[in-house]
Amino acid sequence: MNKYSLNDKAYYSIINKSKIILSKSNEGLETLQARVVLKDMLNRFDVDLDKIIINENGKPYFKNLDLFFNYSHSKNYIACVISNYEVGIDIEEKNRIISDDISKKYLDGVENNNDRLTSWVKKESYSKMKGLGLQIGFNSIDFDSNCKNILINNKNYICSIFCDNNNIDFVKLDWFFYKKYVIYNELV
Questions:
Q1: Domain spans of the chain?
Q2: What is the pLDDT of residues 48-93, one digit of tens each?
Q3: I need a surface site. Which of 71, 102, 159, 163 has the fewest CB within 10 A?
Q4: What are the distances in angstroms from CA 169 to CA 4, 24, 82, 102, 148?
C-alpha cells in the first residue's frame, strides 16, 4: 500500500548533485541527474518514468494520468516537484549574478541581485507551470491569484515552486538514496 497521497499536495525534493554520480559523462548530464531524482519520487507513487511524453511547447507530461511534474537544476542542485495539479519549479544558486541586460529584458530592471534572483525564480517557475517557458514574456507576467507559490530561501540557493491550485499543501520529500548513488545511463 502506497503511503503517499497526491490529494491536494505537491511533493518536492531538493538534492545536491554530488549525491548522483553517473557511470558515463555525456551530453544532457544535468537532465539525467534530474531524471534520477524524479524517478525516485515517482516510484513512491508507483508511476513509471517511461510514460512521459513531450507536448508541442516542449513540456514533459504523462498522457492519460492526472500527475504533473517539473524539475530544475543549477550548478550544484536539482529540484523536482510532483502533484495532481500543474506545477513549475526553478532553483538558482545565490552566487549567480543576473546581468543588468537580463534584468532590463526580463525583470523590469530590478537593481539588487538578490531581488533579481527572487524575481527570476518566481517568474521561471510560474512560466514552467503554465507550460510556456520564456514564451510567456517575463516582463508581462501577472501571477494568477488561484495559484500557490512557495519560496525556499536557503543559504546556498533560492527555489520557487508554483502550483495551479491555491489550496495545495507543499510537502518536502527526503531522497531515498542517502549515499552517493551510481546509475547507468540506460536506467534513466
A1: 9-187
A2: 777 788 887 777 888 888 889 999 989 889 999 999 999 999 999 9
A3: 102
A4: 13, 38, 12, 33, 9
